[in-house]
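Progress note, sequence design subtask.
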């Protein structure tokens, strides 16, 4: 009898628990749609494509250092000024650190902080081998502009300028000052361009209302159980570090090997790093992302996310295996990328070296990740970091008016898409601007197929012309919503 009572009690408690979980999921409601008077402009997509094609034809490959001849960047800037004559006629131009440039279009209302639109002028190199056309030919065919930089990121620069050029042609006058900040070494690290621009602006006492750079993306929501497209705004960047693992051991002839060898010990260390992955945890941007997306998810996902506080111990490991994307969101990733021993096959090397490339999650640091690796591999392995390692960026504010306006603009131009913040897992120039504002956002306003996205830095990079026009609508509307 007593056993039966206990059984019923446990059953009732479990039923209540399930009811609570389900109720919390059902309470997740989609936010109300905002009123909007948005009407897309008639944009001459062919003309914008020609402008982009012309930009692609100028070979602004990232310089190895700032002392190399960068006159091609002056040629590129002259091209922009010729192509956007109304902007050129009102903008004040400042060259920073030789090849970076700021075009300042002054607004009429000094009480409004300026907004900064970022883009990088430089592109990664392109070997013509394997291309269907000249990578710097700016060819237009079957609805695309082909060439290096057509996506990354001359398309965004051209769309951003075209949006303002159209408004100026309509006789509109900006109330808020706009700063177009174009670095010239994003593909290196942004330290000669973006970093110097932000330092320059800081030295002038400039504070910014917001910064927009490349980074966020439009995705098919299926990956996360959403039957819609999702537009993601990057609110932070993961950190980056290359750790060199070094094992020293007596070298010699391979015919008489020591019981343990440098290569064997290095292999063991790398195996341990792979095996002992870094712990998954919730960061502010991942929490914010899932909170924004949860109301649109299928019931299973919704149930899990509404009860994240209770189900977290199950969800964290699950998200790490669901997909590489969710894995990256949840933890610092460690990828072994290089290994090196002797230069000849019959020698025991005195030193074996390997590289671990880390993308560091918000809340961790270059130093704390190094400590983790050291603990995992033991003291016999020496660890150093390569130059260029950088901690994760701060996290941008999503409660600001600037964020709300950006979200509204995306919702208007990409009608019906769900907008959410997210942690950007690659790198951009934007990280250098937190000294000027908390409202640093990354968004690339072009829908693209996965296949086209994979062409970035690769063969046959191309920009869809219809999407280029859509991206122009985005910038135009952003200026209407925030600068007029
Ligand atoms: Zn880029």
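Output:
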């Amino acid at each position: 009898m007593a056993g039966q009572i206990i059984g019923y009690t446990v059953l009732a408690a479990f039923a209540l628990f399930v009811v609570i979980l389900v109720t919390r999921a059902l309470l997740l409601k989609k936010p109300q749609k905002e009123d909007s008077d948005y009407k897309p402009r008639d944009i001459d997509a062919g003309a914008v494509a020609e402008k982009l094609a012309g930009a692609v034809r100028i070979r602004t490959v990232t310089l190895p250092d700032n002392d190399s001849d960068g006159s091609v960047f002056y040629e590129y800037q002259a091209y922009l000024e010729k192509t956007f004559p109304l902007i050129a006629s009102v903008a004040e131009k400042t060259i920073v650190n030789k090849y970076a440039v700021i075009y300042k279009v002054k607004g009429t209302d000094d009480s409004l902080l300026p907004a900064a639109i970022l883009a990088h002028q430089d592109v990664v190199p392109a070997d013509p081998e394997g291309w269907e056309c000249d990578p710097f030919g700016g060819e237009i065919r079957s609805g695309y502009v082909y060439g290096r930089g057509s996506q990354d990121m001359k398309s965004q620069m051209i769309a951003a300028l075209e949006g303002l050029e159209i408004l100026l042609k309509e006789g509109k006058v900006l109330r808020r000052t706009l700063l177009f900040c174009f670095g010239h070494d994003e593909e290196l690290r942004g330290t000669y361009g973006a970093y110097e621009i932000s330092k320059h602006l800081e030295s002038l006492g400039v504070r910014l209302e917001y910064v927009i750079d490349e980074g966020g993306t439009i995705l098919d929501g299926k990956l996360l159980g959403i039957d819609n497209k999702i537009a993601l705004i990057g609110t932070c960047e993961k950190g980056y570090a290359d750790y060199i693992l070094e094992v020293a051991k007596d070298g010699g002839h391979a015919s008489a090997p020591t019981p343990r060898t440098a290569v064997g010990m290095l292999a063991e260390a790398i195996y341990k790093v792979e095996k002992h992955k870094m712990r998954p945890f919730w960061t502010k941007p991942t929490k914010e992302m899932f909170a924004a997306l949860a109301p649109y998810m299928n019931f299973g996902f919704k149930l899990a996310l509404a009860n994240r506080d209770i189900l977290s111990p199950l969800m964290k490991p699950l998200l790490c295996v669901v997909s590489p994307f969710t894995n990256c969101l949840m933890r610092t990733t460690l990828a072994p990328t290089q290994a090196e021993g002797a230069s000849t096959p019959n020698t025991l090397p005195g030193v074996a070296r390997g590289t671990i490339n880390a993308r560091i999650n918000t809340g961790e640091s270059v130093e704390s990740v190094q400590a983790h690796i050291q603990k995992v591999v033991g003291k016999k392995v020496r660890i150093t970091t390569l130059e260029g390692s950088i901690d994760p960026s701060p996290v941008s504010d999503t409660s600001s008016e600037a964020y709300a306006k950006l979200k509204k603009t995306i919702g208007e131009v990409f009608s019906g898409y769900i907008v959410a913040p997210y942690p950007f897992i690659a790198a951009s120039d934007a990280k250098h601007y937190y000294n000027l504002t908390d409202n640093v956002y990354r968004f690339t306003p072009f829908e693209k197929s996965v296949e086209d996205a994979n062409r970035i830095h690769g063969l046959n990079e191309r920009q869809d012309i219809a999407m280029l026009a859509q991206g122009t609508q985005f910038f135009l509307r952003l200026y209407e919503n925030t600068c007029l």
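The first strand starts at residue 92 and ends at 96. Work on this subtask will continue into the next period as scheduled.
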